Amino acid sequence: MERGTDVVILGAGVVGLSAARRLAALGARVTVLDAVEPGGRGSRAAAGVAIPSIRLFDDGPMLAFARAGRMLLAEELATLPDSAQLRRGQGILRVTPDSKSRDALAESAARDVEGLGTWVDAVKLAELEPALEGTPLLGAFVSEHGHMVDTEGYLNALLHEALRAGVRLRLGESGRSLSEQHGRVHLQTDRDVLSAEHVLVAAGPWSTKIPGVPGLPLKPLRGQMLVVHAPGLKLSRVVSGSTYLAPWRAGEIVVGATEEDAGFVEQVTPAGLLHLSATVAKLAPRLREARFVRAWAGLRAATPDGRPYLGRFPGMRQTYVATGLGGQGILTGALAAVALVDLITQGRSEIAAPFDPARLAG
Predict the structure, then answer these.
(1) 203 φ, ψ to 5°?
(2) pTM of the prediction?
(3) C-alpha–C-alpha distance, residues 103 and 122, integer Å
């Protein structure tokens, strides 16, 4: 049994590594486990859209959480090596096909201070993003807030910084079961038993699969994405509709993402590729002959009410969970980490209060 550990974190994604880095800076002895190498399975599969979803406009606490997450993400990226290379593009075009959908979108954001930005018609839209020339869209709301994140670079930088801070990384190792006994949490892993004062489970949709933790309503949603490249055509902003196009590496364009209730099956399917290809053909006709680069699939963790779980597992005192961030994981992961660090070190967190897992405990 390994002793001398204050906090064990399950999951080397954005939340887990951000929390580990912060806890280590406070002097805690931290060990991070992840079932796969190099860790961060869900985070690495994300396209990296760092912009609050339009769906959050009807949920005040979630919208505030996402916007605070965006600010903290910018601060965190700035502290990492080669920070400028971790960002892609700037701003978003929220496109609409007709006047009815434009008016509905404007109404949904009417009470929001930041709002949607400025309306432009299809002609101006093509001037802003030449890749959209010939689009059948009516136009778009343009905002300069938000950007894309290089998720691979972000995760690798967090790994490096966690190691520098003294965090122990045990990648390719799973937590098999846990229990709280005599003021400690005992975690059985593939290799041995870890004993710690606190355990934080930040393993995406796999967070409630560990024997010993209470069940919470949580399901994986599969997201398929593809990348295309057309010489001379690129994007400088995210183009967001029912799906999105966004700047990718070396002038490429990423198209995403499907939302499928497919269990834990992480695979690309013909139906998914057809859906994404139709998005390209419809939104950006000039990209119809673009070269296909690659496609992949990842899993998001979704809760019934669309809000994450940030707090203690119901009925447990020293075992915490941070999951259910859905498609906002890259955007809000660092803020979720701050909330859990506050809970672990201070016993309370105003950030986490609206997202207590007990609200939906079975």
Answers:
(1) -110, 30
(2) 0.95
(3) 16
Direct distance between the N- and C-terminal alpha carbons of the chain, in angstroms, rounded to an integer: 33
Contacts of 37 (CB under 8 A, 6+ apart): 171, 172
Exposure string of 236-254, with b = 16+ CB inside 10 Å and e = fewer, is: ebbbbbebbbbbbeeebbb
Strands, E, within 280-354: which ranges?
291-302, 309-312, 319-323
Q: What's the rounded Cα separation, in Å, for the pair 340 and 127?
A: 44
| Residue 224 near residue 36 (C-beta atoms within 8 A) | no
- What gap in Å lies between CA 218 and CA 325, rounded to an integer? 11
Handedness of CA 203, 208, 210, 212 (dihedral sign): positive
Longest dimension (CA), the chain: 68
Is the link from the previous residue into 220 a cis peptide, with omega within 30 of 0?
no
Cα separation, 235 vs 135, in Å, equals 14
Under DSSP, the state recorded for 116 is: S
pLDDT tens digits for range 156-202: 999 999 999 999 999 999 999 999 999 999 999 999 999 999 999 99
For 81, other C-beta atoms within 10 Å of its C-beta total 11
Residue 184 is which amino acid? R
Contacts of 163 (CB under 8 A, 6+ apart): 169
In this structure, are strands 291-302 and 219-229 parallel, antiparallel, or unpaired? antiparallel
Per-residue pLDDT tens digits for 218-239: 999 999 999 999 999 999 999 9
Cα–Cα dist 272/29, whole Å: 43
Please check whether residue 222 is in contact with residue 262, taking contact to mean a CB–CB distance below 8 angstroms. Answer: yes
Give the single-character DSSP code of 242.
S
| Local structure of residue 124 (DSSP, 8 states) | H
- Is the separation of the CB atoms in 148 and 247 below 8 Å? yes
Residues 6+ apart with CB under 8 A from 102: 96, 119, 138, 139
Q: What is the CA radius of gyration of the chain?
A: 21
Token representation of residue 222? 């599969």
CB-CB contact of 91 with 142 (8 Å): yes
Which residues does residue 189 pair with via DSSP β-bridges, in sequence order?
Answer: 175
